[in-house]
Design goal:
The protein is α+β, with helices and mostly antiparallel strands and 412 residues long. 21% of the residues lie in helices and 37% in strands. The longest helix has 33 residues.
């Protein structure tokens, strides 16, 4: 059968139309089939297990007790050794790990305390173990109070940890003797950081600004870090509170004997000079170096018993007598830092009870450690002073606000 030329284009159009329709239809059914296949394919379930290390329990045992598959538990124990010694696991440490229904490892996370986190994760088919920082929430709080009996007794009931009392006393350690100088009714105020993991207190951060009213004389300390990275406490004028020597080389209980050029000796019953301050404290109380320096004597010194002598810059020499023992590594010739542990209170030599005898020489002459004027550390540099004073004004204003009712603010 022959078509007239006029019908040929029409016939070609019909053929192409039906072929195209067939292709579209086949494509539609293929997609529908693929979709059905995907929807009908069962999903792999991920299992989640968590727990805490108990007393006398290893990580390996704890993972097994909490239902972990043995092959995954072994993998975790071996891989974790790359960044953390499992023998250091402690009661209360927590963990969480994920694996699929085929007992294949997915992810592991271990918390040691509240600030250390270790993870094991799978990337590109390989396992990687690493230590990760724990995100903590920072809160700035204000605290104020009056002295009743002692700084310790007046502050400890307001603190979550004794660390805050020690931080506060350390700030003014170069200016205030918290044993002999403070009086009932003295006032203290401070602005400080607290760190939390979720809602649980972890630790104290820095004390940002602090103030002590000593019988009407006000001492203020503002924490500041300049652009050179130097971080110290300064008064509002920019002078550093830190000095070459501490007022006292230990957190003592009481002064049992003061500096004197003529004192009745408690054993020999004769009058003779007493060139130091006796700090009565239990045997074993830590003794620190009053300043940076070099140990020039470490041994037995007649009536002083076990003694350490340290030479400091600018003609200062300090000595620490009647020690029960020396700290590890402290010997003649070594360099020590201010507040570094050097020994422990004892009763060696000629002594009626356990105490530390602390002496100080300036240019070869004994002086009263409680009355000497010690040079301060370098003040804030001139180029940073204007910015510091502006910051000091703001932070003291914040101290006034937050200590008025002891409210707090979240800093991050």
């Amino acid at each position: 059968m022959k078509f007239k030329p006029i019908f040929k284009p029409f016939i070609y159009f019909l053929v192409l139309f039906f072929v195209g329709l067939l292709v579209v239809k086949l494509s539609f059914y293929k997609k529908k089939e693929d979709k059905t296949t995907t929807e009908e394919k069962p999903l792999e379930l991920t299992c989640i297990l968590s727990g805490k290390i108990k007393k006398n329990e290893s990580l390996y045992l704890s993972l097994l007790k909490n239902g972990g598959p043995q092959n995954i538990v072994y993998t975790i124990s071996e891989k974790l050794k790359e960044v953390f010694d499992p023998k250091r696991c402690a009661p209360g440490d927590s963990f969480v790990f994920f694996y699929d229904e085929a007992d294949s490892f997915v992810f592991f996370e271990y918390f040691r305390g509240l600030e250390q986190k270790y993870i094991i994760e799978k990337r590109d088919g390989r396992l990687f173990a690493e230590k990760k920082p724990v995100e903590l929430r920072s809160v700035v709080k204000g605290l104020s109070g009056k002295i009743c009996s002692s700084l310790w007794e007046s502050m400890i009931g307001k603190c979550k940890d004794p660390e805050l009392v020690l931080k506060f006393s350390d700030i003014f350690a170069w200016h205030i003797d918290f044993l002999t100088e403070i009086r009932d009714g003295d006032e203290f105020r401070l602005l400080f950081e607290e760190y939390y993991k979720d809602s649980e207190f972890v630790r104290y951060g820095d004390i940002l600004v602090s103030e002590y009213n000593l019988s009407g004389k006000i001492y203020q300390a503002i924490l500041h870090q300049d652009k050179d990275g130097r971080k110290e406490y300064y008064d509002p004028s920019g002078f550093c509170l830190k000095k070459a020597l501490l007022r006292s080389p230990l957190n003592y209980r009481r002064i049992s004997s003061r500096f004197s050029y003529s004192r009745l000796h408690p054993i020999y019953k004769v009058y003779r000079p007493h060139y130091g301050i006796d700090y009565a404290a239990p045997i074993g109380t830590p003794v620190v170096s009053a300043g940076d320096g070099k140990v020039i004597f470490c041994g037995w010194e007649k009536g002083l018993g076990r003694t350490i002598v340290i030479k400091h810059p600018k003609g200062f020499v300090t000595s620490y007598g009647h020690l029960s023992r020396f700290a590890k590594g402290v010997k003649r010739g070594v360099l020590v830092k201010q507040k570094q542990l050097i020994g422990y209170v004892g009763q060696t030599g000629v002594a009626t009870g356990p105490h530390l005898e602390y002496r100080c020489k300036v240019n070869g002459r004994y002086v009263n450690p409680l009355k000497i004027e010690v040079p301060s550390v370098e003040p804030i540099k001139e180029e940073y002073l204007s910015d510091f004073k502006e910051y000091a004004y703001d932070v003291i204003h914040t101290l006034n606000l937050l200590t008025a009712k002891e409210i707090f603010m979240v800093s991050d």
